[in-house]
Task: structure prediction
Amino acid sequence: MKKEISFEKALDRLAEINEKLESDGISLDESVELFKEGIELSKLCQKKLDEAKLEIEKIEIN
Amino acid sequence: MAGFNILTVTQITSYLKSYIDENKKLSGIYIKGEITDFKANFYSGHFYFSLKDSNSEISCVMFRNFAERIRFMPENGMSVIVRCDLSVYQKACSCQLYVYDMQPDGLGAKHLAFEQLKAKLEAEGLFDIQFKKTLPQYPEKIGVITSENGAALQDIINVLTRRWPVAKLMLTPVSVQGEDAPKQLCAAVRKQGTDIKPDVIIIGRGGGSSEDLSAFNDEALAREIFACKIPVVSAVGHETDFSICDFVSDMRAPTPSAAAELVSPDINSLRQAFDDNLEWMKDFLSKKCDNYANILSRFTNVKHKDFTDKFILERKRMAEYLTKELIFSYKKQFSKKQNAFSAGIAKLDANNPASIIKKSVCKIEHDGKPIKSAEQTEIGDKIDIYFSDGTVKAEIKEKTLGGISL
Result:
C-alpha cells in the first residue's frame, strides 16, 4: 500500500471494502484479506492524522 | 384630407414606443438625479417618482420585484443613481424610466464603476452558478493569496492548525491594497492556478475601508479568477463587504477565518469516521466468524462424529475384504495355471526319447566289444552291463532268439 494515499482515496477504498464485505458469496478468506487491508488503511490514515502538523510554504510571485 | 396617410393616436404612440424600445442605447442606462414626487403604492408595492436636475424632470416607475431588493428607502430630495430602461407609457404618451436598481449617490464614481462592472460581468455570465466549482473535501494543499503580514493570514493559519493540520498551506504573499495590488493579485491567482496547483485557493484580506478593499473589485482579477481551473474561495473584509472577487469566486466566505473553515474538514470527525469504520469491520468480521463457527460445530458435534467414524470404518473394512478377495482369487488362478503347466511338463518329459532311453537302455559289452543283439552272445559268455547308475557283470545262461516287444 502507498504511504501517500490521499484521505479521499482512502475513504473511497474503505467504503468499497465495506461494500464487498457485506456482499453475498464472499469467502471467509477474502473477508479476512479485505479486513486486513481495511485495518491497515484505517491505521495508516489515523497515523497520518495524529502526526499532522500544518506546514507553510511561501512561494513568491516572481 | 384625402390622399394623406391618417394614423390613429394609438398607432403613433405605439410607433414611438417601439422606436424607443428598439434603441439599445436607451436600455440598461445609468441615470443620476434627485428624487421628487416619491410615492410607494401601498397595495402594489411599486414605486412611482420623478428624477430631476436643474433643467429637466422625468417620471420613473420601479416595480415591486425590483423595489423589494434595494437596501434603503428612497426619499424626496435624495440624490441617486438608477439603472433603467427608457420606454413610453402609451396611455399618456409619457416617456418614463423603468428602474430596476437604485443606489444612493455620493459614494462617488468608484461605486458607480463597481455597479457597472458588476452588471457587465454578470451579463457575460462570469457569476453563473453553472461555472461554480465544487470544493474538495480533503484538500492536501491549500493555496492562500493574501498579505504576509495581515491578520487574515494569521486567522487562516489558526483555523487550519486546529481543524486540518494535514494540509500544506501554499502562500503567495501579495499587497492587498495600493496601486500595485490588483496586478499582484492577478499574478498570484495565475501562479497558484498554473504552477502551484493546490486543491483549493483562498484569496482575501481582513477588513478595511471600501477604498482599502477596492483592489478586489478589479476587472482583470475577476477574469483571472474566472479562468482559474482550481476552486477559489473569496474572503474579502467583513461580512457586510461585497466585492467583485466575491461574486466571481466559486464560493464567498464572510471572513478569512470562515474561508479556512469552509475549505477544511474537521480532523476530529475524520478520526471518528476511521474509528467507527474500524469498529464496524471488527464487528462484522467477528459476526461472520461466529456464523462459520456455528456451521462447523453442527458438523463436528458428537452424533455426527460417530456417524462419520462409522462411515469411514465401513469403507475401510470393505476395502480390506476386497483386497483379500483379490489376492485369494489371484492365488487360485495362479495355482491352477501352475498345476496345468507342471502336468504339461510331465507329459512332455514322459514322451522325451532321451528319457525313455534314460529309463530302459543300457550298454552291454563282451570283452570290450559292444553287444547289439542276442545273436552276438553265447551261453557262458561273461558280459559287462553298464547302467547309467553303475556296472554289473553277468553270465549268459539261456538264449532264445526271436523278437519281443519293448
Summary: Chain B touches chain A through 40 residues (CB under 8 Å).
